Amino acid sequence: MKPAHPLYSVLAWSAGCLAGVLAARFVPLPALADPLWLVVGVGGLLLSLWQQRRWLITLACICGLLAGLCRGTAVRLPEITTSYYRGQTVTIHGRINGDPSANRSGGQTVQLAVATIQNQPAGGHIWLTTHAHARLQRGSHVVVRGILSPGFGVFAGAMYRARIIQATAPQGDIFLPMRDWFAGRLFTWLPNDEAALAAGFLLGHKTALSNQLDEAMRTVGLTHIVVASGYNLTILVRLGRRLFARHSRKIALIAGLSLVAGFIAITGASPSMVRAGMVAVISMMAWFYGREVHPLTLLIVCAAASVLIQPRYIWGDLGWLLSFAAFGGVMFLAPLLQHYFYGQQRPQLIPQIMTETFSAQIFTLPITLYVFGSVSVVALIANLLVLPFIPLIMLLSAIGGLLGPLVITPAHWLLSYVVMVVYQLASVPWATLELRLPISAIIGLYLGLGVMLWWLQRRTQFSWRSVNITR
Questions:
Q1: pTM for the full model?
Q2: Cβ–Cβ < 8 Å for 317, 153
Q3: What is residue 102's three-state secondary structure?
Q4: Residue 130: strand pairing partners
Q5: Shortest CA distance to 99 belongs to which of 232, 259, 201, 208?
Q6: pLDDT tens for residues 277-307?
Q7: What is the 3-state secondary structure of the chain?
Q8: CA–CA gap between residue 329 and residue 173 (Å, rounded)
Q9: Is 22 exposed, middle or buried (0-12, 13-18, 19+ CB in 10 A)?
């Protein structure tokens, strides 16, 4: 009997893992919370990779399901404990995930990973709003008190206008002071809006954006360029590889992996950064060893790996869903459109940006319509006017932030241009379109996208293995 390719076992295990984690959200099985089941799940995958029998592909899928149920249940059970306290005034001890953001009332909004409630072990994340506090940073340990309200999305609860009882500065995060130091230099030499943009491009530091600029960027569909995103990371990885590949593939690989690790450490492990980092690492490894990876394989494996790290992603984390939807558009629709219009030739910068932006937006459109009930009409124009300059802005801002005001002027000019484009397009009366669709229409839109992909594939006979996002 012909042995099965190991890739099929990996795909089956990954698909089973995704199904298991998703199932644990609705039907957690306490008996499967023991980490031993995760060991059994991984062991089944290793066995199928070792023997390479076709019937072991089914075993790999079952083992992936067990691993997903184990990991999902272990995270879900503490969340259920947290939900018991809804409607009560409680004291919560936890750790802040990500950077706090300013809200319209002048306070701060944070995502809090719960450690204890009323001195009892608990878990999950809660959405927390409170007054501005100097010690609230990424990684800060805080004690808060307030009424625990029902949560939404992936949040087990919400606490509005919470009272900060205690807040300690984050310990052990050596990258946070470095990031804040560099951001401080940018704000010293650039106007606030321009400095906030530069800090967002380079550091994923979105908290410094003014409410006016933040709202304008949402209106024109440019929020993704000022948060830690796959686009910023891809720019860095491509730059590192092109600089060093002509000298040594090994040095180029090491430089690329170092950039990925460093960027995630500085910006924080948000859902979009976890996805982007995994995609970048796998793509670089495939390039280094001369292998080609099908985009569907990349999508499923990265999705499974990310939900094993954090099961809440697949339970409704909007950032994770939008990140993978945009990734799907760039990896599936964009290459087909480029091949349809340009054949074997690689498109120039503007056509490439246009097709990738359009593809990402069309794949995220159903989700944004369902969640927000609106879509930016000027997003494609805004991205075409801004994205070509982002790599140069990042380079000039990095050099200027290190060397000082004498060399930061070119970055200032380009950043001022971006601010001008954002405000001008946001002022257009028809910049956004209000349209809320039911879930049935959302499913129909994605089925239509599937038919579009099938038709373009049949028409172009495109080879998916030639797709590599880090090229």
A1: 0.81
A2: yes
A3: strand
A4: 108, 162
A5: 208
A6: 787 788 788 777 777 777 888 889 889 998 9
A7: CCCCCHHHHHHHHHHHHHHHHHHHHHCCCHHHCCHHHHHHHHHHHHHHHHHCCCHHHHHHHHHHHHHHHHHHHHHHHHHHHHHCCCCCEEEEEEEEEEEEEECCCCCEEEEEEEEEECCEECCCEEEEEECCCCCCCCCCEEEEEEECEECCCCCCEEEEEEEEEEEECCCCCCHHHHHHHHHHHHHHHCCHHHHHHHHHHHHCCCCCCCHHHHHHHHHHCCHHHCCCCHHHHHHHHHHHHHHHCCCCHHHHHHHHHHHHHHHHHHHCCCHHHHHHHHHHHHHHHHHHCCCCCCHHHHHHHHHHHHHHHCHHHHHCCHHHHHHHHHHHHHHHHHHHHHHHHHCCCCCCHHHHHHHHHHHHHHHHHHHHHHHCCEEECCHHHHHHHHHHHHHHHHHHHHHHHHHCCCCCHHHHHHHHHHHHHHHHHHCCCCCEEECCCCHHHHHHHHHHHHHHHHHHHHHHCCCHHHCCCCC
A8: 35
A9: middle
- What single letter denotes the amino acid at residue 131? H
Give pLDDT tens digits for 106-148. 788 888 999 999 999 998 899 999 887 767 888 889 999 999 9
**Which pair of structure tokens corresponds to residue 139?**
């990684």
Amino acid at 449: L
Residue for token pair 């800090």:
199
